[in-house]
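note to self — DONT lose this again. spent like an hour looking for the file last time. sequence + predicted structure for the chain T wanted, 304 res
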Amino acid sequence: MMELEIGLNNLIECQALEIYQHGDELIIPYMMNDAVECYITFSDVTVKGEWDNDADDVTGVSLTTNGERNGLIFRRPGNVFTVWYSTYEKHTHLYQYHRIGHFWVQGFERWRRLVYLIGTLHDKYNFMGEDACNELELKLIPLMGYAPFRFFSPIKESLALYYENTAEGIEAISEIADKVGAGNYKQSIKTYKNAFESQKLNPGLIKRNALHMTRHTKILDYLETCIREASLPYEERVYEPKEEQQMQQMRQDCLQEYLAQGYCGDYPLLEKNGKKVIFYEEHPYVMHELEYEDFTFQIHPVEL
């Protein structure tokens, strides 16, 4: 019960609490992204009051009991929403994500994809804890504390408000530069570190450092390899047979289109005259009950 209360209060603090009722079952998504689907189900449910997922003014939640039934009391200004239930269960699924790609911003798409995915892992760690991450993920997550890496935001706004600059981020990128032999980038890291430690970081320095980093393709290739290795141990998302068939048909259509243009290979990686293209995908959630109407399976070709 204590874990449940802590989890619900975390959602309230992040203004991310949503409740879905299906018959006598109630579902509260805890964390839903490209690496995790974690949700709580409550059975034998009765509710009192009105609930609006679009409102974010929940002030708190308290747990209570009434004989064999347990209760959740959600408080809002001028409104109380009560859920009575018999049992609850937390469901956690950790999924592969290395073939995922979202491209909301043009330019430096491969770097933006890395920022998106490592940011996803950062969120997984914050919400789910260390037990939900493998050793390689734990080594990648600190990169979100390195501002030049975060410079390639996958969304149309800076990520500075979401992640702090950290010494661990500097150490992480420095170790990677050493590992891949990007010695020319070490001076940029040193300059950044001096500015960080003297609290003199500025947007110009961060941008120059970020653009310098993109010239070291060994860093990019290494991080993409790490993402794949970190992702592979997890399960693949599996959908209903009809959906699986539709998705496979879209992959085949995409493959045939590029083969007709003279590319060789197999999905998701093709090549023509030394030019490579890889297909990244956007996946919906497995749970239909929590799906957004405009979120569907899509394929994005990206030149390497």
